[in-house]
Design a protein that fits this description.
heterodimer, A: about 425 residues, Alkaline Phosphatase, subunit A, two-stranded antiparallel ribbon, about 30% helix, about 15% strand, B: mainly alpha, 3-stranded antiparallel beta sheet
Chain lengths: ~425, ~650
Amino acid sequence: MTAPTPTPVPGTPGPITRRGLLRAGAIGGLGIGTVMIGGVEAAFGAPAKGSRPDTLVVINCRGGMDALTVIPPVGDPSYASARPTIALRPGDVKRLDDTFGLHPALGPLVPLWDARKMAVVHAAGLSGPNRSHTGATLALERGSPSPGVRTGWIDRAVTATDPFTAIHLGDPSLPASLLGTHRLVAAGAFDDLRTEPSDMIVPVAAWQTALAAVTAGSPAVAGPIATALAATARAAALPAGEAATDVGYPDTVFGQALHDVARLVKADLGLRIASVDFGGWDMHSGIGTAGRGRMVQQLSEFATTLRAFADEVGPELDGVIVVTLSEFGRRLAENGSGGTDHGHGGAVLLFGGGVVGGKVHGTWPTLASGSLVDGDLAVTTDHRQVLAEIVTKRCGGPAATTVFPGLSPAPIGVVHPAEIAGQP
Amino acid sequence: MSEQYGSSWPPAGAPGPYRAGPAPSPYDPHARPSPYAPPPRPSPYDAPPSPVPDVQAPPDPAGPRDDDGPEYDGGPEYDGGPRDDDDPGHDDAPPSRRRARRERADRTARTGRATRPVRRGPRLPRVPRGVAVSATVLAAIAAARGSDMVQKGNAAPGDGVTELTATVGEAARGTSVDAGTLAEQQRSRTSAAPVLLPKGLDVEHLLSRVTFGATDALRNEVRTQGAAAWLARQLEPMSLPDPGGGAVTALFPRLRLTPAQIEANVTDQWEFQCELAAAHLGLAIWSSRQLFEMMVAFWSDHFAIPCPGDRAVLTRHLFDSDVIRRGALGRFEDLLQASAIHPAMLEFFDNDVSTPDRPNENYARVLLEHHTVGVFGDITDQDVRQASLLLTGFQIKDHVPRFVPLQHSTGAVDILDFSHPNDSAKGGRDAAASFLHHLATHPATADHLARKLAVRFVSDDPPEALLRRLARTYLDNDTRIVPVLTALLSSPEFAASKGRKLRRPLERLTATVRALGIGPGKDAEALLELHSMLARAGQAPLGHPGPEGYPDVASAWQSPAAALEHFSASAGLAHGWWPKGLSNPCPAALARSGPTTGAAVIDAVASRLLRRAPTPAERTAATGLLSAAKLPASLPAGGREQKEAIGLVATLLLNSPSYVMR
């Protein structure tokens, strides 16, 4: 699949970045003014917001997030009765609206909600039920239930070839969402992208030449190492940051990954989409209650990490959209182990300056027995609609139908239109 | 850090998770336990199972390991010559390399990655990362389980509660399913007849597929025995002495502990679990039972129970010894029956707490989607629910599985094309075993296993005709694994598939260590460091967090990070830099003739690692590297420059398709 080429900036090599624009402006002797870039007006000297596409941060909540515990519908009369031992009570939660509350372990995120930089789309998920981790994850990451679609939605959403246009962090293996025509990078931690000490005996450029020569003719071998060495050269541009734990992140792989994303955003290396894994949601047992159990631990790590991320990127949060995805929600009824089995409808959590925040979006189908799909929360919002809206309105990505073949775009208003989104 | 969202929530200074720094880890590698009790239990690796008095015991695929066998001689390639312990920290190393090593060490210390692997963001089961997490999680699970037991009432003795033996060959005994009898086990393993291999089968191809990397010693074995006879012996692994494997297992004595001993004595349970994974890696590299270890890795992925993890901590190693290693070359049905009732499986997938009124679907879904008929089979949600009901009644007490009739859900079931009246609680064990028997012998399971084995040994997209033959062989031979492997390896499709498979990070590392002639040494830490390298490359042995196991096709392994890690690992091993503690004869052993010019080094290392002269492209590339390293024209024998040149050329070749493909 051919992706549209990025909008060229005359005289400016490389991807469009705010710094690049500011530099170009300064060199041209422009103090305050406007220029036209590809038919879109860019304001120099104006507030940073909108002067470049947003960076999208996708958090993959692997295992199937129980949205009915994370954003519990405490106002739905069927909720408590279906979950005698694990339902949260209205008094346990931060009230979001007449129907929904926020799990108390998400406390560190309440200021973001109150500042309207956090939103929820409830009853969101795959268009059709798929209760298998493998099948549902593949449909989610490819952005299509069709087996004919073999590339990932993130691969289709990026339009540049720079190795840091999109990156997967927290896991050295590429998820299906990043597989396809672009050679994208995955790393357990950003600092793993190093060649030392081999590069101290022989410069990386010489390694690149030599390895390209011996791997020529074997693309499966040549591609990854070439991308890796190019990435290490770019990675050297990232200043050494503070340790994640010194800036409020928990000492976990997820915390390190979001810290790495924050460093990339702040360094302005052209990152458009970051993908980060956060597993551990497959809670068939011991979900627990408002004050203890696996969900409290899970959400505490999540909230502490997200809050540290928001604090670290600071005002640049206005140029970032964080979105959570999960392959499915959980069954409405709890099982005999204080957990829940695989279900259907879930929720998408959103953070960032461009989010229409302080609001639970979507259409609540209710938990009345007649509304359930085979015992599960129904899906009223295909999560691809949320992603398509973000990618096109905020991130300067290609058309929604390019990213999600077969989708009929129906924006639901989860993000504000960006002043500039670099759209053709 | 800026606090732009206020500090109103949580209140400043509030205890709890919001502001917590890193919690002290219960798995702190530095908090070594007091010396643990001597193992009362025979090691899964060292000893054969206690013979059953009235039946002749079958040969044990996991034993006997030779505690008093021959000393490991340093690896098949090592000739006892002088070892080279040079490394970048040696006094003659240039400052730049000393700095590099120091920085790397600092980084390792900071991230703790020397002994704590970077986990992939766990896909499904969550791994606790601090004491608070772990304690609370476990307490929550225990609470849920406890209340469940109270709710249902503990079955009193006399209610037909039966202790079960979750060991391959024993698991289905006592049921009406005639599976896994010892006599049958024996029959399945007495096929010493040479495998009929096609004439002219490329020995390098065979070795690259059925071993974790060819060595000169292996080539010699095949040459002297003949490929067919050699393969037949590999299919009867207990006939092979295994000093290399013995040297590895001797490094990990804690893997012989019982669950109760671990519970009582092992405080660094994370590290303990890493030892099992590191032992797996070590056996893959150094065991002489190469095809056996290949199948151990295969079944460990097929019946994936992530290790290290936060579940089944005390019994995961027994799953390895009692199920996977005993059954790796036996009957699939025996593996399935034993795995289903093993405490590690019961606990990990919550089947031990699945009850008639509120069944837990976790295990039933994994059983159908991954262990048997396959995820893309025609499994409905109704099938999963019915299967979870049929599989109720299996619990764990004191780490031993048992069947509790009062906890079994009765009532007719209809699952795929299996139906059963399931009309008595006491008959629940038999009903479940019948269901497993049905699944093991199901044509869809045969197709699923045929495809996985063909993808493992032949190509990412194996020919349909081969798959049909393998599935047929599987069903015709009562789910025995060896006949399927034999059919596969003697097929023309196998012979024609040379060089088509991409080595995954595990196989890249094993092939590299084996080709370099590195021995295990006497330090378990070195193996744990190799394990960490694989974690950074995305394939820690036993570490896949999902029930589907690691993928086995090239498209899944295009990660630049994995390529980079292999680049760094191969450089460290070939130069003899790290990990410390291995018995590493490199770089000197890679060029014994002592070449003193760049061109001679290139010839010598290519001859050693590729067994041929370098291609013009390889020679040009290697020459470019040496000139970029600014090495002198003459390389004094035994000097730093000569070692550096050897290491550079070896690193280059170890990252070429000759090593990365198989």
